């Protein structure tokens, strides 16, 4: 005899995160004292943007005091490694020039991050 019972299957819908984990990236070009104030101003302003968005949670602030043409900045490299670990959803940056000064490097990095599902938001 053939068994006509239907298998007991239960559908479990995917859970979509309503909140987004935010990484902040800040950069200044030199270690000069006046640049330190600029770095603090960048961090403060971007942290305020995260605070006013109820669906955003600050994960970490990454920072560098180095040229935007240098792709081996320690804070930037650490942030990219954390992207591969899926530790945050969005990178918040003051401006494109704070992220990279080289268009080719910028586009390459943006494409890698998009492939990982990481969004970049420039203020």
Condensed summary:
The protein has about 120 residues and is of the alpha/beta class. The chain contains four helices and four strands; from the N terminus they run E-H-E-H-E-H-H-E.
Fourth CATH level, the homologous superfamily: Resolvase, N-terminal catalytic domain
Shape: elongated
Strand content: 15-25%
Spatial separation of the terminal alpha carbons: 68 Å
User: Class in CATH?
Assistant: Alpha Beta
Rg calc: 20 Å
The CATH architecture can be named as 3-Layer(aba) Sandwich
Q: What is the ordering of alpha helices and beta strands?
A: EHEHEHHE
Helical content class = 25-40%
CATH topological fold name: Rossmann fold
Average residue-wise pLDDT: 88
SS-based structural class? alpha/beta
Largest beta sheet, briefly?
Answer: 4 strands, parallel
The largest beta-sheet arranges its strands as 2-1-3-4
Low-confidence stretches: none
Layout of strands and helices, then pairs:
Layout: E1 20-28, H1 33-52, E2 56-65, H2 74-84, E3 90-93, H3 96-99, H4 103-115, E4 119-122
Structure description:
The chain is an alpha/beta fold and 123 residues long. It has one domain: 3-Layer(aba) Sandwich (Rossmann fold), CATH 3.40.50. Helix content is 39%, strand content 22%. It has helices at 33-52, 74-84, 96-99, 103-115, and strands spanning 20-28, 56-65, 90-93, 119-122.
What characteristics describe this protein?
alpha/beta, about 120 residues, 4-stranded parallel β-sheet, about 20% strand, Rossmann fold
């Amino acid at each position: 005899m053939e068994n006509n019972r239907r298998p007991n299957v239960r559908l479990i819908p995917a859970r979509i995160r309503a909140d987004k984990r935010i990484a902040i990236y800040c950069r200044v070009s030199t270690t000069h004292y006046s640049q330190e104030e600029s770095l603090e101003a960048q961090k403060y302003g971007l942290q305020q943007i995260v605070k006013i968005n109820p669906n955003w949670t600050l994960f970490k602030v990454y920072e560098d005091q180095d040229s935007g043409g240098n792709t081996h900045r320690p804070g930037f490299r650490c942030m990219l490694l954390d992207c591969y670990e899926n530790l945050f959803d969005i990178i918040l940056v003051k401006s494109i020039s704070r992220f990279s000064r080289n268009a080719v490097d910028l586009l390459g990095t943006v494409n890698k991050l998009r492939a990982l599902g990481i969004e970049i938001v420039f203020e």
